[in-house]
Amino acid sequence: MISDYDTRMKVTHSRQKTGTFVLELGKRATLALLYVGILTNTLRAEDSSLVARWDFGTEESTPLLSHGGVQRDQAGPVPPEFPDFAENNIAVHLDGKGAHFSMDDPGPNSKYDFTNGDAITLEAWIKLDGIQSNSPMYVIGKGRTGSPRFPADNQNWALRVVGANGVAKISFLFATPVGRIANPSSSSSPADAHWHRWTSVNSFDAAGWHHVAVAYRFGDPASIHGWIDGQPTAGAWD
Q1: Cβ count near 138 (within 10 Å)
Q2: What does pTM read for this prediction?
Q3: Residue 123 in contact with residue 213, Cβ under 8 Å?
């Protein structure tokens, strides 16, 4: 499970699209700074393309609702090991029993909506309590909240961590409307062909803090890029 999660997350993109969702952060994680953005490289806080950032201090600029066992003011990554952070950097801890943050969808034409031609970058700092094989853990996702008002597979985008053989890999997931195959690289069965999942080749263990990031331009499977602790990693659509 993810227990400590100090994330930097940016959401940025070039166009606003329609759609509805609830933003759900880090089940089974501790969060500190999170970004969602639209560049194909690591984003900076001052980027004009920044859509959202959460650093989990005393108050978020984009309000979040907490659910379950969320513990604030937890120790985050700090210097000298992590010189980009303040000495008093803090995180939030999620207890792994359904604790999470959520945010209501602003509505149609939301800045959080992405479609073909839009590019997205997701970044996070995470610290794992443990790893369970074949048990995906959400870092952040838009949609797929279980609300009866929307289809069960309304996953616009998500950054996840997936356990495999005692290590963790990063995973990017989204779904297109049924009948529209937007990822010809996918090997999914016809019933699941609207799901598109990319998993990294490189991995990391549960010790200490790790930086994870994914960048992708929707409609272009070859554009996917992933990073673990600043190092690029190959991956595969499966």
Answers
A1: 20
A2: 0.79
A3: yes
